[in-house]
Design goal:
The complex is a heterotrimer of chains A (193), B (131) and C (397). With 131 residues, chain B is an all-alpha fold. Chain B is built from 7 helices and no strands. Chain C has 397 residues and is mainly β. Chain C is globular and about 75 Å long. Classes of the chains: A alpha+beta (193), B mainly alpha (131), C mainly beta (397). Chains A and B meet through helix 3, strand 3 and strand 8 of A and helix 1 and helix 2 of B.
């Protein structure tokens, strides 16, 4: 979702320990969180237990393989991997809206009192640490009006609304109880091919 | 809502047979997602779900179900003319590979043995007039 | 208290005023009435500078609204609530404003209600509410709603995420159809009984709804590459003639005439009109060029077929960056007429349709600017009309 102003208006402090190593832990929690949220799957105990697991560690210092890979866009060239409460955090390359991580949530977590969307669009962002691109699901948090902190305007790969699969203006709350937009998250789906 | 018995059966089967994201051991290097699966994720997976399961009643479940469509000529034609398929602008071979990922990767037990894969030729023939 | 000289003067002054109040002296100041009755004003007759400005209020979008502004005095004349990514459509005949909006029964929660709220254009009183079966909830695009040239039909784009266009009869005040437009989005009204949608493959789908029960959808061939150089949703269009200019991220203009079977003309480049090289595409995303961008990225003036396009200098993927200039382009000759430097970067540009036109822009702090389109001079401004001024339109557009 929305709007327009690219400037970072408020500097969240870089939290200690917000390193890429911790991302692995979060990626694991992401899968767990998503699975448990989904009522259908939650009831399928056998399925949950045996679910094919996404790569546990999608982001690591694997510089060797693609050391020569260059940032593909101006956003990527200026992106950082240390502070996910800032607009130039690498995963936010196509995030147009407010950062959940600046509103009481996290990079893939919704703020208290909101609801995570089961639907999203999925884009690609370049990680400056390992110089590789990852698929990123831009899931909105829903059920309260805009959280108002850190209004970002990442537009890499954003195409108009008649191509919804790559549009960041749509309120990605389909399937949530309420389609009211609160903020946006950027969850890792996997390493781009 | 899908009947849970059938879905559970399909899910167990799938889980046992198809690692969706080429997952390895927890400490292995992450493997890149294949081209067909990437295309599915970026063009369909936001709504239909990373694993082919999304919002019951709102968005059709593909996992363990979509294979039924691929078993009939009518169903295959339907799949080819779904808006996101017919309007994808992918080349014929790539589009065929995405359809095959959906049918054989997500379809699981719903895809009957012997179901033929989509070919670039079939894609071309079906969508020639609309793109 | 003694009868001091100053007190005596006051009494004398009051007596004078009392006497004066009984006379019709035009030069005298108004008396202070003893009792003032409250009333409610109505709008003066509309002129060509009656502007309709949409404020999305992104920080609390459920409180969106639209303002009516007199461009000659730079004063607000009134407003209408327009909740949650609403679209405001002006009746071409001038009688009403139609607000496609979404509210929840308990503010931020409760039952979702999608409505077409109808306001009397003279009194701004709510005259009707029509329940809609849905609406696309998306940061508002102008073509999420439109109206037929005769004012009979309002079209509201819906996305569930399946795509359809809801048709409302403004005479019977009823929803008459939900027309599926699979794979396509938005509604560009053409004539009295049709609309076109842009599709994911870069084609148009045009729907003739002369018989709303049996809409006729015609799909065209792709005319742009949606993954390489997509056209903006906010491409300017004229419902009466169907004349539309689809403008791409890379500054290519494809003239079109919408109708039952739309016709498309060869695209031309805004940059080439300005004697520049064409703006490089997504293959070289670091290349800097002048590019269209913003939200309401262009306006069209019928009288001379000129386009006014918001432009900025930037790299690829800056299609939402505010414009720093407006480029006036002659669509007949594909020539640049002039470049107008804006007083502040703006996400919208508007133009009035009269002989003494106003150019309209905004700022990210909610200012509204009224410019002389020839000199670029700021004629008037409202320093803070609202929060997020994303659209402005004028009568006859």
């Amino acid at each position: 979702m929305p709007p327009t102003r690219p400037l970072q208006t408020r500097g969240g402090q870089a939290r200690a320990g917000r390193t890429i190593d911790r991302l692995s832990e979060r990626a694991t929690r992401l899968l767990a969180g998503r699975t448990s949220r989904r009522g259908l799957l939650a009831r399928l105990g056998a399925w949950s237990a045996m679910a094919p697991v996404l790569p546990i560690l999608p982001v690591r210092r694997a510089l060797a393989a693609d050391a020569a890979a260059r940032p593909p866009t101006p956003f990527a060239a200026a992106a950082q991997a240390g502070d996910d409460t800032k607009c130039n955090y690498w995963r936010y390359c196509a995030l147009d809206g407010y950062l959940c991580s600046a509103c009481g949530g996290g990079v893939h977590s919704c703020p208290p009192g909101t609801e995570a969307s089961p639907t999203s669009w999925i884009g690609t962002c370049f990680n400056p640490i390992d110089s590789r691109s990852y698929l990123v699901a831009y899931r909105d948090c829903c059920g309260q009006d805009a959280c108002g902190q850190m209004n970002c305007l990442g537009t890499d790969g954003d195409t108009p609304a008649y191509r919804p699969q790559s549009n960041n203006d749509i309120i990605w709350c389909y399937g949530a109880k309420s389609l009211m937009y609160n903020c946006s998250t950027a969850a890792i789906v996997g390493l781009a091919g | 809502m899908p009947g849970s018995a059938g879905l559970r059966r399909a899910a167990i089967l799938l889980a046992a047979t198809i690692p969706l994201c080429a997952a390895g051991a927890a400490d292995a290097e992450p493997q890149p997602i294949g081209a067909a699966q990437s295309a599915y994720l970026m063009r369909c997976g936001g709504c239909h779900g990373i694993e082919g399961v999304s919002v019951p009643g709102l968005i059709p479940t593909l996992r363990g179900r979509v294979g039924a469509l691929a078993g009939t000529a009518k169903g295959r034609d339907y799949m080819l003319h779904l808006p996101n398929v017919a309007m994808s602008r992918l080349d014929d071979a790539t589009l065929a590979s995405v359809l095959n990922f959906v049918v054989f990767g997500l379809g699981g037990a719903s895809t009957a043995p012997g179901t033929p894969p989509f070919t670039a030729h079939q894609v071309h023939a079906a969508l020639r007039d609309s793109r | 208290m003694t009868d001091s000289p100053s007190r005596r003067r006051l009494v004398a002054l009051a007596a004078t005023l009392l006497v004066a109040s009984g006379q019709a002296g035009a030069a005298e100041p108004d008396p202070i009435p003893q009792t003032e009755q409250s009333d409610v004003l109505t709008l003066p007759p509309p002129g060509p500078h009656r502007l309709l400005v949409t404020d999305a209020v992104y920080n609390h979008a459920k409180d969106g609204r639209a303002y009516l502004v007199d461009g000659d005095s730079a004063r607000m004349l009134g407003m209408m609530p327009a909740a949650y990514n609403a679209n405001i459509v002006a009746d071409p005949k001038g009688g009403h404003y139609y607000v496609a909006e979404t509210i929840w029964t308990r503010g931020n929660r409760g039952t979702r209600q999608d409505l077409l709220s109808i306001y009397d254009a003279h009194t701004l009183a709510l005259s009707d509410e029509i329940s809609l079966p849905g609406r696309a909830l998306i940061t508002t695009k102008r073509q999420d709603a439109d109206i037929s040239a005769d004012g009979h039909w309002v079209y509201v784009y819906n996305m569930t995420p399946s795509n359809s266009v809801i048709m409302v009869d403004t005479i019977t005040k009823k929803v008459v159809a939900s027309v599926p437009v699979p794979g396509c989005g938005l509604a560009f009204a053409w004539g009295d009984h049709g609309f076109a949608s842009l599709c994911a493959n870069g084609a148009l789908a045009s729907v003739d709804v002369a018989d709303p029960a049996h809409p006729k959808l015609v799909r065209g061939k792709p005319f742009f590459a949606p993954e390489k150089d997509p056209v903006f949703e906010q491409s300017p269009t004229d419902r009466a003639t169907g004349r539309t200019f689809f403008i791409s991220y890379g500054g290519m203009v494809t003239p079109a005439t919408l109708g039952p079977t739309p016709t498309l003309e060869a695209p031309w480049s805004i940059n080439e009109a300005a004697k520049q090289a064409r703006a490089p595409g997504g293959d070289t995303p670091f290349a800097v060029a002048w590019r269209p961008g913003g939200w309401q990225i262009a306006a069209y003036r019928h009288s001379d077929a000129h386009l006014f396009v918001l432009m900025h200098e930037g790299q690829y993927w800056t299609h939402k960056a505010d414009g720093t200039e407006v480029w006036e382009l002659d669509t007949a000759t594909h020539a640049l007429v002039r470049r107008i430097r804006l007083p502040a970067p703006s996400d919208m540009v508007g133009i009035t349709q009269d002989a003494k036109p106003l150019l309209i822009s905004s700022s990210d702090s909610g200012a509204l600017f009224l410019l002389d389109p020839q000199s670029g001079a700021v004629l008037r401004q409202i320093r803070k009309l609202g929060d997020n001024l994303i659209f402005a339109s004028a009568p006859g557009e």
